[in-house]
Design goal:
The protein is of the alpha+beta class. Helix content is 13%, strand content 27%. The protein folds into 2 domains: 177 residues, no CATH class; 55 residues, no CATH class. β8 and β9 form a beta hairpin.
Length: 268
């Protein structure tokens, strides 16, 4: 496991604003069970597969987590000349940056004109977004909202109820996850009731082990064989921010939002 220090970190206020510059926010997808774990305070880490940059993948195929830069970059090289390669930024950001959670939701017109009611599938919570809280970007009601829930892919920033502040970024192999990390991932203990991986039968000797429970969770989200593949992952630690504190800290603040392009899986 390689811990990545945040070189030259700026100070972060309790509300999450960064001294000396605007806070960077990026969207991130989470499945329903993981949203519930966030809300319950059981999840403070997430692991996402490191995806090589297509342009350089063939020329620099080797990942070197011990050669980090800026506290949030990974180094790719050819295995021959360690000073020749390309660095890759963590797409989720660095300590002090924020992640706003995209989850399955349903927007409906509210009683008051121009207000919007938002219901979240993960726990059924419903809240009203007032006129004036939608920001400057135009938005169109998704067609799916007429009959049911809407994919998190179509959730705008104003509808997000959970915001995370990154506290640490590491790069490691998936199998390096510890029992403590597995608990911080919000995983359940291994049991006969957990969704079993297809590549192995139920083993009662593993009951109660969170790391085994995490492996089941990873496989359920990322597909058969994804645990055995043991990929390089970004291990991102964070804290859940208080919404009122965010609202006060970001009043009049210019956000620099950056999209994350990824497939629908890998939402752990």
């Amino acid at each position: 496991m390689t811990s990545v220090p945040h070189s030259g970190a700026k100070s972060v206020t309790p509300g999450g604003s960064v001294a000396g510059g605007a806070v960077k926010e990026r969207p991130i997808l989470f499945s329903g069970p993981m949203v519930r774990a966030l809300l319950d305070g059981r999840k403070t880490q997430t692991r996402r597969v490191v995806k090589p940059m297509p342009k350089w993948a063939e020329r620099f195929p080797i990942c070197d987590p011990d050669n980090m830069a800026a506290g949030h970059q990974i180094w790719w090289w050819d295995g021959k000349f360690d000073r020749v390669g390309v660095s890759q930024d963590c797409p989720y950001g660095k300590p002090g940056d924020r992640l706003w959670v995209k989850e399955t939701w349903r927007p409906t017109k509210s009683f008051e004109p121009w207000d919007m009611d938002v219901t979240y599938r993960a726990d059924g919570e419903r809240r009203t977004v007032k006129d004036g809280e939608f920001g400057d970007r135009d938005w169109t009601m998704p067609k799916a909202a007429a009959t049911g829930n809407v994919s998190p892919l179509f959730m705008p920033r104003w509808a997000a109820r959970v915001v995370l502040e990154i506290t640490d970024v590491r790069v490691e192999r998936l199998h390096e996850i510890t029992e403590g990390d597995s608990i911080a991932e919000g995983a359940d203990q291994y049991a006969s009731s957990t969704k079993l991986r297809r590549d192995r039968p139920y083993d009662s000797s593993l009951n109660g082990i969170y790391r085994e429970g995490f492996s089941e969770l990873w496989e359920a989200i990322n597909g058969a064989g994804s645990w055995a593949a043991n990929p390089w992952v970004w291990a991102v630690s964070f804290r859940v921010l208080d919404q009122e504190a965010i609202a006060k800290a970001t009043a009049g603040e210019t956000r620099n939002a950056e999209p994350i392009h990824r497939r629908d899986g890998d939402e752990g």
